Amino acid sequence: MTVGIAVKERILQLCDERSLSVNKLCTISGVTQSTVNNIISGRNNSATVATLKKLCDGLEISLEEFFHSELFQNLEQELQ
Question: CB neighbours (10 Å) of residue 71?
């Protein structure tokens, strides 16, 4: 699994756990719908830490909690 896919899956997982739509997450976090849609659709595979921090603030979790998931274990090495 790549980092981009893991981030996407984690966002969707956290929204599901909190019964939040992606649209609602955008509203409460102050991140534009287009930015989150690009992450979810895979068009943006490198979300910034600042964007993830805003999403975490909306979810009321820390960045540490965001990355504390099995999704981020054994990620593929991404060489370009």
Answer: 17
By the 10 Å C-beta count (0-12 exposed, 13-18 middle, 19+ buried), 70 is classed as: exposed
pLDDT tens for 21-33 read 999 999 999 999 9
Which of 71, 54, 58, 56 shows the shortest CA–CA distance to 8?
A: 71
3-class state of residue 56 by DSSP: helix
Contact 40, 12 (CB under 8 A): yes
- Alpha carbons 40 and 43: distance in angstroms, whole number: 8
Instruction: Report the alpha-carbon distance of residue 2 to residue 23 in Å, rounded.
Output: 24
Which string of b and e fits 26-51 if b means at least 16 CB within 10 Å? beebebeeebbeebbeeebeebeeeb
Does the pTM surpass 0.70? The reply is: yes
